[in-house]
User: Fold this.
Amino acid sequence: MENMKNGNGKCPFMHGGVTTTEKTVTDWWPNSLNLDILHQHDNKTNPLDENFDYREEVKKLDVDALKKDLTDLMTDSQDWWPADWGHYGGLMIRMAWHVAGTYRISDGRGGAGTGNQRFAPLNSWPDNASLDKARRLLWPIKKKYGNKLSWADLMVLAGNVAYESMGLKTFGFSFGREDIWHPEKDIYWGAEKEWLAPSDERYGSVEKPDTMENPLAAVQMGLIYVNPEGVNGTPDPMKTAAQVRETFARMAMDDEETVALTAGGHTVGKAHGNGDASILGPEPEAAGIEEQGFGWTNPQKPGVGRHSVTSGLEGAWTAQPTKWDNGYFEMLFNHEWELRKSPAGAWQWEPTSIDEKDMPVDVEDMTTPKNPIMTDADMAMKVDPIYKEISLKFKNDFDAFTDAFARAWFKLTHRDMGPKSRYIGPEVPDEDLIWQDPVPAGTSDYDVEEVKAKIASSGLSMADMISTAWDSAR
Assistant:
């Protein structure tokens, strides 16, 4: 008993918390060489068999059965996260858009190729709010197909099937994206220490979008591309247009692809901001274990359906948000728009006047009309002269818009997969596309071994040869 009083009967092991925040070696010496990134996804932590080959395993998939399961999922609304208008298409498309939209050409990082949206920091970015629900809805399908289907492939395919279920003929799809199994350490997302820090921290001048720090593409920490309310949250469509153009260029998209993707992404689905965003619970990485991987829990019941809060903006862009049509451009150009605040306090554009027949309806009550909205980036498609010209072309030629979007969507979701020779599956398109960097077959019949021997005997040092090869590949 005396030992217990003196503390001598305590467990002999130290009980420091496993989540302590003491300084690491890198914190003490920030300029030291960090070699951790060379040991990412080490085989010791690989949950798969050491001989597992996903690119061979995925070829065993019953693709027709998988796509039927995904199509059925779109209209299988769950009480814990009801589908808007009974269709999960908008949610699945946003998930696929956001997993692919992190790609940037400057260093080739980001993109949909690894399924990284499941892990920090992406799973907890403000712009990815509620996508934890999309991935949870997909879990039964992932479980059914097991290791024959990666999360990376599943998330992109879910977006494709969502569009197809709403009437779009997609350009194609390739399997072959291999999952990572823990967060990436080697991608630089920005130096900011807080979510949605002002854009000024990553630009030489916010007034000059091309001064954004390389290799970044998104305008703020925690966003996929631009702020939907405007530059630093202040509406001004012309200023937003300049940021959109620079950001999408850094994602390898030209002006026509930018308009097509913006319009096609907002032809379906809606934004969610019908409540108080300040009361939402923490993001998944900061949420308690009792949340079971979910984040942004809304304590105000029911907190789902028409009451859900995600981006803070509230409303649909078109009158028929579960159908692929030309409603986006018709809505944008057939009405005048004015700034208003959403119920969550976010800036959004709403029509100055609109007939009820042209309005979308409530997600739960199909008899209740609701005002449509546009983001500041949407308004940029109307006020920027170049974007406007392209938008009007698409407004007057639905087939041209559909083709442009299908191609841009395919590029967005496949840009980081490498050459076409890596594509797998029955829906790989036959057409070669310039962004795939197709290389024609060589016509030379030289002896490779002889060339290698001559290089080896050239007198060049190893350093010279490495330097030459490196410079040739840049």
Remarks:
- Residues 200-399 form a domain with the Peroxidase; domain 2 fold (CATH 1.10.420.10).
- The chain is about 35% helix and 5% strand.
- The CA atoms of residues 204 and 248 lie 18 Å apart.
- The chain has a mean pLDDT of 94.
